[in-house]
From TrEMBL:
GO molecular function, one term: unfolded protein binding
Name of this chain's protein: Chaperone protein HtpG
Organism of provenance: Peribacillus glennii
Gene label: htpG
Cytoplasm among keywords: yes
Binding site for ATP: 31, 35, 77, 82, 90, 96-98, 117-122, 167, 341
Alphabetized Pfam families for the sequence: HATPase_c_3, HSP90
CDD domains with a match to the protein in the record: HATPase_Hsp90-like
Keywords: ATP-binding, Chaperone, Cytoplasm, Nucleotide-binding, Stress response
């Protein structure tokens, strides 16, 4: 048996690794399974060029087995295996990646799925184990070897008996300490859920012996436990499938499986991009507002996968705030990850993907609006507010993206209309887009200020949401038409054109108006005869920037 020390640098690196690179201990399983998957990929690639090797997909698998009594966890694969040199070079030298070398040697630039690249993932096993044993037999090799290490002290290596090609990794799970409990890593249900979470889309079966229950033979109500080998992962990620192979139910099931929401998605968006940056994405527009949507607890973001392996639960950078309701995932082979594979090294790729996704969401919403109006309105009832906030925030920088998605209740149709629909049917002599603010549609219906505009046959948009008027202020215009509150003094309508100047009525009633002004002093600026009223005797109007409704909101806001 040979005993070797890790190099000094490696020793320090290893300590650092074990203690600080990863934020969660559970990812060791993701790393070991990824390595196993890489090892099977390698044998597959080798078989492509090696006549003597045959790759029969069905005989390749990864197996995870926990032994509670002995407190061990074993990960077995039928991959390419490691020679003695491989064990020394790839496991004995930290930050040396045999997988990266394999990719380079075999010039696997496109369409490959090998995950490894940093040469550190393996050591994450020491976060949960005191001793790690690797038994491996390389393809085409006569002898197998056993490599064993307790972490920082170095490793031993010796010939070993193993019949089949492949690798077995045995972790002696740490004893519990006062701060940390490690029991979960030999717990069947827990291991299953870790596999599901991170490695669900590994392309080879991940098997586990699972305790199941069945009716005792000959009995009608007595059950017995038995061991059953199950495949834990779903293997083929839905996002790698062809859109034409997938039915709406497939997407709905995926939405449920992933716990994106309790509702049914209103719409799914499946994106496959094969350009300067390659990625697949499946996005969902939920039907209902998540219960915590408008609370502080709500976190926006999409799941981020690198080559089918989960890297981030909620990557916030992929979604702008105004589309924060979108759920789903992105998978890309082209991400440069940092060493822990938890963070991205360069956000250039991510920015590109985010930009792309953003455009796609917008266009899909527009298509929904155009082709499935009812569904769009349902969406808008839930998330329209978020779009309006999106326009208002950041000083209106996103208005171009969002303005076509807005809808407001209209006086004419008594239903939601878009700004485009409004402008398209404006009579020629109408200069402005008119709106009226109020607590509810019913209240606005009764507003005296709307009378003249309505009489002219002009449509009025009803603003009942607090954010409406603020958002419109950011827009300023739509298709070069300015927005105008029905309560502003200058409505741009002929009948009241002279209203700003003094009219004969003003002079005739001067005494009365002066008396009213005096009585209401500090509350109104002026009292004038109006031409805009029909059935109401009096109304307020404003000539400043801020309408009465906005003023109410501003006053109610905490300072
Ligand atoms: P990475 O996967 O980033 O290369 P790791 O530390 O996870 O780094 O693994 C180091 C190297 O050890 C791998 O690149 C691979 O060459 C080798 N290796 C690890 N696990 C296995 C395995 N199950 N089968 C074959 N080779 C393996
Ligand atoms: Mg690895």
């Amino acid at each position: 048996m040979e005993k070797k020390q890790f190099q000094a640098e490696s020793k320090r690196l290893l300590e650092m690794m074990i203690n600080s690179i990863y934020s969660q201990k559970e990812i060791f399983l993701r790393e070991l399974i990824s390595n196993a998957s890489d090892a099977i990929d390698k044998i597959y690639y080798k078989a492509l060029t090696d006549e003597a090797l045959r790759f029969d997909k069905d005989s390749y698998y990864i197996k995870v087995a926990a032994d509670k009594e002995n407190r061990t966890l074993k990960i077995t694969d039928t991959g390419i295996g490691m020679t003695k040199e491989d064990l020394e070079n790839n496991l004995g030298i930290i930050a040396k990646s045999g997988s990266l070398a394999f990719k380079n040697e075999n010039e696997l630039k496109d369409g490959h799925d090998i995950i490894g690249q940093f040469g550190v993932g393996f050591y994450s096993a020491f976060m949960v184990a005191d001793v790690v044993t690797v038994i491996s037999k390389a393809v085409g090799s006569e002898t197998a070897y056993k490599w064993e290490s307790t972490g920082t002290e170095g490793y031993t290596i010796e010939p070993y008996e193993k019949d089949t090609v492949g690798t077995e990794i045995i972790l002696k799970i740490k004893e519990n300490t006062e701060e940390e409990n490690y029991d979960e890593y030999v717990e069947e249900y827990r291991l299953k859920s870790i596999i599901k979470k991170y490695s669900d889309f590994i392309r080879y079966p991940i098997k586990m012996d699972v305790t199941a229950s069945r009716l005792k033979e000959g009995s009608e109500n007595e059950y017995e436990d038995y061991e059953e080998e199950q495949i834990i992962n779903s293997m083929v990620p839905i996002w790698r499938k062809n859109k034409s192979e997938l039915a709406p139910e497939d997407y709905e099931n995926f939405y449920k499986e992933k716990h994106y929401g309790f509702d049914k998605p209103l719409k799914h968006i499946h994106i496959s991009v094969d350009g300067t940056i390659r990625y697949n994405a499946i996005l969902f527009i939920p039907e209902k507002i998540p219960f915590d949507y408008y609370s502080k607890e709500f976190e926006k973001g999409l799941e981020l996968y690198s080559n089918g392996v989960l890297i981030m639960d909620k990557c916030a950078d992929l979604l702008p705030d105004y589309f924060s309701f979108v759920k789903g995932m992105v998978d890309s082979e082209d991400l440069s990850l940092n060493i822990s594979r938890e963070i991205l090294q360069h956000d250039r790729q991510l920015k590109l993907i985010a930009k792309n996704i953003n455009k796609k969401i917008k266009s899909e919403l527009q298509i929904l609006l155009k082709n499935e109006r009812e569904k769009y309105e349902e969406f808008y009832q839930s998330f329209g507010r978020q779009l309006k906030f999106g326009i208002y925030n950041d000083f209106g920088t996103h208005k171009e993206v969002l303005q076509d998605l807005l809808m407001f209740y209209s006086s004419k149709e008594k239903k939601l209309v878009t700004l485009d629909e409004y402008v398209e049917r404006m009579p020629e002599d109408q200069k402005y887009i008119y709106y009226a603010s109020g607590e509810s549609n019913e209240r606005i219906d009764k507003l005296p200020q709307t009378e003249l505009v309505a009489e002219k046959g002009y449509e009025i948009l009803y603003f009942t949401d607090e954010v409406d008027e603020f958002a419109i202020r950011m827009l300023m215009t739509y298709k070069e038409k300015e927005f105008k509150s029905v309560s502003s003094a200058d409505l741009g309508i002929e009948a009241e054109e002279s209203e700003n100047n003094s009219s004969p009525e003003d002079t005739e009633n001067k005494d009365l108006f002066d008396y009213m002004k005096e009585t209401l002093s500090g509350k109104v600026k002026d009292v004038r005869a109006s031409k805009r009223l029909r059935s109401h005797p009096v109304c307020f109007s404003t000539d400043g920037e801020v309408t009465i409704e906005m003023e109410k909101i501003l006053k109610a806001m905490p300072n």
